[in-house]
Every structure is written in C-alpha cells, then in structure tokens.
Sequence to fold (231 residues):
Amino acid sequence: MSKKILMVLTSHDRLGETGQKTGFWLEEFAAPYYAFKDAGADVSLASPAGGQPPVDPKSSAADQQTDATRRFNADPQAQAALAHTARLAGLSAANFDAIFYPGGHGPLWDLVSDPNSIALIEAFWRQGKPVGAVCHAPIVLVNAKDDQGEPIVTGRAVTGFTNSEEDAVGLTHVVPHLVEDTLIDRRARFAKTEDFAPFTQIDGRLVTGQNPASSGPTAEALLRAIEDPRA
Fold:
C-alpha cells in the first residue's frame, strides 16, 4: 500500500515592504515531490488559501534550475496538481503518513502562525507520524507544541536557513523572523554546515534541511522516517 504524504506550501506572495514577490522556492518543492513520487508515494498538495501557491520568481531564474525543476517544467500533470492545492482547513492528519513543508520566504509570513498548519503539525506529532521541513520552512515548527505544551523542536536536533545565508541573500532586515534565531529561541539544538551546502538533521521523526540544496536529501530522510519513525 502506497504511503500518503501531504506537502504544504505557502500562500504568501509579498516580500515584506520591498514591493518584490516571494512564495515557495521551486527546487524545494520539485525535488521532494519527485523523491516521494518516485518512491511510489501518493502525494497531496495543500496551502492556506488553496489553489495555485505563489512561486518565488527568483527560483524560476535560469541559474536556479535543477534536474527536478526541469522535470517539473515539463510535467503538465504535476503543474495541474500544484495549480489546485487543497485548502489546509479541514484536512486531517489521520489521512496521511507524513507531512512535509517546502521553503521559500513565504512561510515566514503565513505558515509560521497559521492555526490550521499548527494544528496539523501537532496532530501528526501526536499520531507518531514524521514531520519534515526544508530551508525557511522549519519556521512552521516553532509554534507547534507536544502533549506537554512544549514546542516540538525543544531539545531536538534541527536545521534551517541560517542567519549567514539570510545575510548572503540580503534579506536579514526584510524578513519578519530569522529561522536560526527563532529555532534557537525555542531551545532547539540547531546545527548547520557552510552556507548553501547540503545539510540535513534527523531527530527520530523530525526531519529538517538547511537550504535548497538540502531539499532532496531531506525528502529521502522523511521517506526513511515513515518506514521507521523511531530511528
């Protein structure tokens, strides 16, 4: 029986007060999407507003393309699935085996505090199911709590887009939250490698990746966690 994975994308498309657009980062969707599909998983897509989530236009630039993004750009079926994401409200963790959040700057504005997203993460956690996020998306974890009322990241090994990476892209003073600082504030055991190099943290069924280059390895780690969430 195929595993059912829920991928949750941002609906936020404004990069603060810059007048620029943001959203989800294409590689961070495409690489996990195909990792899951190629493993035989049944992938469902959702977002706070439903419908087509905004793609960060910078992630569609020629110099940001990867094998996974090129595959997506030539895949009408995947494009149609992305254009019709379900609304987060009303989704049940009982219907899925794991949840995964692609990054991009959008989640810093909406998913970090979205009550439906937080409730879903907490439900997956209570049910012993893996939770994954990559790059900026580990921010979605910081307000989700366990049965003791503690943030689920407290005391757990995590990673995410680092302060130095945010500085490198020139958005330290634009974003409403710095992923590294916020995870550390929740007493997570934050780890990282050099800027923009692949790095994944696995703490049982909590799986996080540092940056776009980490999206594929993080998805593979989530697949392993579905098979053995105690690992």
Summary: The beta strands are 4-8, 42-47, 86-87, 98-101, 131-134, 157-158, 189-190, 200-203, 206-209. The chain has one domain: 4-227. The CA atoms of residues 158 and 190 lie 5 Å apart. Residues 4-227 form a domain with the Rossmann fold fold (CATH 3.40.50.880).
